[in-house]
Amino acid sequence: MEITDQVSDELITSYRENGFVRVPSILAAAEVDLYGTHAADYLEKHRADRLQHDAIFSQLVNVWQHDPVLRELTLHPRVAHIAEQLAGFPLRLWHDQMLVKEPNSNAATHFHQDRPYWPHANDRLPLSAWIALADVPPERGCMTFLPGTQTRTDLLPQDLSNEEDLFTMAPDLRWSPRVTVPLKAGDCTFHSGYTGHMALPNTTAQPRFAHVNIYMDRNTTYTGQPHVVTDPLALTPGSPLNGSHFPHPW
Hints:
Elements: H1 9-18, E1 20-23, H2 29-45, E2 52-53, E3 58-61, H3 68-74, H4 77-87, E4 91-101, E5 109-112, E6 120-121, E7 127-132, E8 143-145, H5 165-169, E9 179-181, E10 188-192, E11 197-199, E12 208-217, E13 221-222
Antiparallel strand pairs: 1-10, 2-3, 3-4, 4-12, 5-11, 6-13, 7-10, 7-12, 8-9, 8-11
């Protein structure tokens, strides 16, 4: 799909009703090879910089600011153009992150929402593009979503390591339908920052590489709450999250 193409009304409707959607082959095979190779190299060079490196996953944030090739993926015009059509309003990049489930990690990332962790105000629903850089069948740690939970905007941040945390806060969600979405390398899911989701354990001998572009409403402002992305920027509460740190992504 060229950047000037429009996604279907059916895809937009599905995203807005369910809070997530799968887009197959968002990257060409050559792009998967290029970005997958660079992601593996970047992880090895920056293991000491990981924010989280326990049994659940390894996480590296804002790789676009340090690697020119992965910057192309974070600012990929096709991915951003689809994201903006799904959202229905102008976006900026909040941050990217590399999420790696190490081989045989055998630990799930339990159900949670993303948006409660972020120091955002005055924003409409953010969304993430979760791009598979390797095949992600269920046994390698693909994601499971709770459709429709993007309407639950009243919950506190949840504990990724606690299987019961989200359901203790919102007992009704325990009985929500669950949709597991395996991905081929180059496929992508878009999900709202409030859509409940989890990732299964990686029980295989191969790492699961995902590159996640997180987009926010262009009008988002800073609450003043601590966050690894905003802490170094000396922002004051109420400041707009814009400028070179939070670019328009395409």
